[in-house]
Amino acid sequence: MFKYEVIIYWSDEDKAFIADVPELPGCMADGKTYQEALDNAKGVIHEWIETAKELGRAIPEPKGRLVFA
User: Fold this and answer.
1) What is the pLDDT along the chain (69 residues), one digit of tens a residue?
2) Deepest in the core among 32, 42, 54, 56, taking most CB within 10 A?
3) What 3 state SS string does the chain have?
4) pTM (2 decimals)?
């Protein structure tokens, strides 16, 4: 399980909850509900890390502060 900080907020523009993973640049997800956004974030964190491994890029160690995914 990854313990990266996930910041979830409502976007009026997108009419959805946005889940941002600031420790992983560009790693974001959305959802119609708070829980859906968090669940989707779990998937994109996994995809982000797998892609970084395939490309030989460094994977930041999670500092984990607020909500974990």
Assistant:
1) 578 999 999 999 999 999 999 999 999 999 999 999 999 999 999 999 999 999 999 999 988 665 555
2) 42
3) CCCCEEEEEEECCCCEEEEECCCCCCCEEEECCHHHHHHHHHHHHHHHHHHHHHHCCCCCCCCCCCEEC
4) 0.84
